[in-house]
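look at this one:
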Amino acid sequence: MTQTTNSTMIYSQLTRNRIATVILIIAFTCFIVGAAVVFSAARTGDPFTFAIPSILFAAFYILISFLFSKNAVLAMSHAKKVEHKDNPDLYNLLENLAISRGLPTPTLYIIEDTAPNAFATGTTKKGAAVAVTTGILQKLSKQELEGVLAHELAHIQHEDTRLMTLVVIMVGVITLLADIFLRSMYFSGNRKSEGKGNGILLIIGIVLAILSPFIAQLIKLAISRKREFYADAESALTTRYPEGLASALEKIASDHEPLEAANRATAHLYISNPLKDRKKSKWNNMFSTHPDTNERVGRLRGMMT
């Protein structure tokens, strides 16, 4: 029986995910600025002495990271560039999907690994890249692979790759600020009593410095999970066949082989967690880069009538 996509449900899900992501990004930005102000006030008595140079440094760090993030990720993943002549079927499939979405065709890469997975990277649409493993080419049907590629193109079109680069940098910045503050407190020793910061602010600053990297990591993971739901819905909208991606996700999740090239720094990029953490508790899901596969599959199949 032919299944059709419920477009109204898809657009509704996309809107919910977009709103949730904007709220999370605003919260993350406010958290970083607020933490920098508290650290500055606690250490010097002036909320801007430490905060202003920290924010300027963060802006510079973001710029440098944007320039090198794509090449760094591809190098870490041992991805090899693929031309049309190397794999015309795969290249044509990606090109046709890109055309349907009004995108320039991303540069295509293949990772020599039998674990099925894929990711997109790049901070601009013109400079984006899509990488797939040899395992995903061997284990998925054409319709399933189409769903995966459409998912990755959705990340590119809506600049999720840029967004997640920014979020990862934010986590690094807040962790660095917290570390600098704690080290400054440690090395100042008894001299801290001579500073201008008051005792209550010092206590708040120390507690925040200890907890902030943990909180920042939770926010990053929450954003990553939201973007996966968003890209899933966009994939279904592009292919008009949610079952293709749903089936692909089931196959990828049920494959027990971890992806050797992946690590915790790049795991959030992949369509499915490449580290293969099998725990299913709600507590563990808070620390996952990806939503639960069953929930993703359920949402996709709920889009069909």
